[in-house]
Design goal:
- It is a single chain.
- The chain is α+β, with helices and mostly antiparallel strands.
- It has four helices and eight strands, in the order βαββββαβββαα.
- The protein has a five-stranded antiparallel β-sheet with strand order 3-4-5-2-6. Strands 1-8-7 form a three-stranded mixed β-sheet, with no helix packed on it.
Length: 180
């Protein structure tokens, strides 16, 4: 990390498929006209659905009685067609949650590689992988936020930590806004 130039490599979407198993999901923020959710009750990993030789589950995280993100998540090697996620969400809302009168206020989807294969963190003299590209996804949740935060803090300290007298480094002004 000597010198003013350092590249941080992240994972390109096309690389997710190459890495094998992945956590992929589609979620809707559901809004109902009548109270349909208990904001005091969060549902994590509801497996009440056919697993189809994969790991499949739902999350329900109500904000209030008529608004909740509902997410369908799958652990498998291949991402499903969009319609498969949407059919599963509709079915879960109707049969498990018994919610039929709703609108979708927002949507999210994604695919996160899940691997325990060792991946190189140093990709070159001044290129360092972080997050998914470095294999730092937590397999139980698909989360890399804590690792990204630690990596960003380390980069910021290494690049902007100061000169030999404890003052701001000469690259501080240029790098700090980008890394922070």
């Amino acid at each position: 990390m000597n010198g003013p130039f350092l590249s941080v490599a992240t994972l390109w979407i096309g690389e997710v498929e190459r890495l094998g198993n992945k956590m992929h999901f589609r979620g809707w923020e559901v809004v109902t006209s009548a109270p349909s959710f208990d904001p005091e009750v969060v549902t994590f990993m509801d497996f009440r659905m056919p697993q189809e030789d994969e790991i499949r589950f739902f999350y329900v995280l109500p904000y209030v009685a008529n608004r909740a993100p509902v997410e369908f998540t799958v652990f498998s090697q291949h991402v499903l067609p969009r319609r498969a996620y949407e059919e599963a969400l509709r079915e879960y809302l109707a049969t498990v949650l018994r919610v039929n009168d709703y609108s979708v206020d927002a949507e999210e989807s994604g695919a996160v590689p899940i691997t325990d294969d060792p991946l190189e963190r140093a990709l070159g003299r001044r290129v360092m992988a972080i997050g998914a590209r470095a294999g730092r996804i937590k397999p139980s949740t698909g989360d890399a936020e804590a690792d990204l935060d630690n990596a960003a803090t380390g980069l910021r300290q290494g690049l902007c930590g100061g000169d030999e007298n404890g003052g701001p480094s000469r690259h501080h002004q240029r790098v700090e806004p980008t890394v922070a």
